[in-house]
Amino acid sequence: MWLYVALPHLQLERMQVLHPDLQGQPAVLYTEQQQMVVQFNQTAQRQGIRVGMNLADAWTLTENLQPYLYRESQQRALLQHLASDLYHAFAVISLDPPLGLWLDTKPMQKLYPQLQHSLTQLELQLQPWQVSYTLGAAKTPLLAKMLAQSGMQQSPDIPVDYLPCSPELQKKLRRMGIQTLGALQAIPRALAGRRLGHELVQLLARIQGEQPESLRYFRPPEWFTQRLPLLAEATSWQALSFPLKRLLQELEHFLESRQQQTRQLLLSFYHRDGSVSKLQVGLAHGGYQAEALLRLCQLKMESTQFLAPVLDIGLQAKQLQGRQHESRDLLQGPSQAQKSLAQLLNELQLRLGRQQVFGLQTAAEAFPDLSWQLAPAGAELGRTELIKRPPWLLEQSCPVDIRQWQLTRGPERFATPWWLRTYGGATRDYWQALHQDGRNGWLFYDYRQQHWYLQGWFN
């Protein structure tokens, strides 16, 4: 069984969700060249505005009309986004841009044995989108689409106006007095083919499922990308914060469903003159929560000045990684210390720059002086547990009086190759030793210098 979801006002209704002030006003989307209405909201519908109406005629019906340019690229992006959400409940999805998509319920029969189960799950998935839609359910994709577009419950009642055929064929059907699909199917196919041509024969074969549809099946994207048009031009962070918050909430939903987080955000600001300003927000520890990401964007954008007004804002997150599960306390929930550390790293990196915030990591070098290296902030650091090493190494080893120490464990000999100029040919014996004041240190005897040195402390 195939389901077709028709979304005749998807782009405009998503604009209303992101801009609630638009809901109480008559609003339409129109094409740039034909100046023709292609989508409208309920307020505009009550004023008598319909799809296909000229924009000038729509103005005569209401003085408060809010017209916005229809963007096919955004319509396709919204369908892709919706399909990504539906993919968690339906394994086989095929997009039918610009106004709908197909769902194949057969692969999910074990999970949803009855059609009503699939319809209930579909309603749950579409509810957060707050968009109007019509459904069609049939054994073939084309028939399901025709049911959804016509609003009919039974296939014989579908008007021939919804047949995907040439205008010439529809004129022939009307001249013959054929008004519905049921009346057309009542005619023997051979007779209909002789009178109306091969186009009708192929169309009936598609409706009956005798000729397969060439559907392109959907695969969820590997990263997040969204673009949001603004209702009014913006030139400051205050004007951009609300639409950006909406985009970040969409990103949080995207990442939450995949148990992922992002290491970088790319903000794109589309200006009136056609130019695009881009702003990167790096996250040392990664993040996925909208509120935390909004604070980081604010830190980055407060010092940004736009040379031209912003018409659209885009958000892209490509550097995605699996989210590490936080250790939880049974009563208190996630560790606040872990959250604070992640937020601190992100804020430090934004304030000081990515080149100023690092972590420390062990390196495969013999001498402790060379065994440390810088690592990107927030990166998972390697750990060496084979040999006990002190957590506190001195910046430079210092000479000591061995008479104040008691050797407790060792020796461990380190010898470096001759080609290392600084340490070439040096040999050291390392010991764990107890100082007379009770502290546990790490000493070495340098055979070249003939002296004892302190390298670090165990406590």
TrEMBL record:
<feature type="domain" description="UmuC">
    <location>
        <begin position="15"/>
        <end position="148"/>
    </location>
</feature>
<comment type="similarity">
    <text>Belongs to the DNA polymerase type-Y family.</text>
</comment>
<keyword id="KW-0227">DNA damage</keyword>
<protein>
    <recommendedName>
        <fullName>UmuC domain-containing protein</fullName>
    </recommendedName>
</protein>
<dbReference type="InterPro" id="IPR001126">
    <property type="entry name" value="UmuC"/>
</dbReference>
<dbReference type="InterPro" id="IPR043502">
    <property type="entry name" value="DNA/RNA_pol_sf"/>
</dbReference>
<dbReference type="Pfam" id="PF00817">
    <property type="entry name" value="IMS"/>
</dbReference>
<dbReference type="GO" id="GO:0006281">
    <property type="term" value="P:DNA repair"/>
</dbReference>
<dbReference type="InterPro" id="IPR043128">
    <property type="entry name" value="Rev_trsase/Diguanyl_cyclase"/>
</dbReference>
<dbReference type="InterPro" id="IPR050356">
    <property type="entry name" value="SulA_CellDiv_inhibitor"/>
</dbReference>
